[in-house]
Design goal:
It is a single chain. Helices cover 62% and strands 0% of the residues. By secondary structure, it is mostly helical. The longest helix has 15 residues. The protein is globular and about 35 Å long.
């Protein structure tokens, strides 16, 4: 649920033109998303047949996350 809320919030900010890509810092209260939720979502996207490149390009953009700030666990899933 937090993932969907974060995606909606990012889209609203883009519309308001206050969009700013942020680093994932691993603190759920600040990121709005826990590492566990992020890993679960990435696994589900991969299992549904989406390519790693599409996940990196589209979904992390929607989540407003810089790829360079992602935890190693997530980066390993996307290799």
């Amino acid at each position: 649920m937090n993932l969907v809320i974060r995606m909606i919030n990012t889209r609203i900010n883009e519309i308001r033109q206050t969009h700013e890509e942020k680093a994932f810092i691993g603190v759920e209260e600040k990121d709005g998303l826990s590492l566990k939720d992020l890993i679960t979502c990435v696994n589900e996207l991969i299992e549904s047949g989406l390519s790693s490149e599409l996940i990196k390009m589209r979904y992390f953009q929607i989540l407003d996350l810089r790829e360079s700030s992602l935890p190693q666990e997530v980066i390993q899933l996307l290799k």
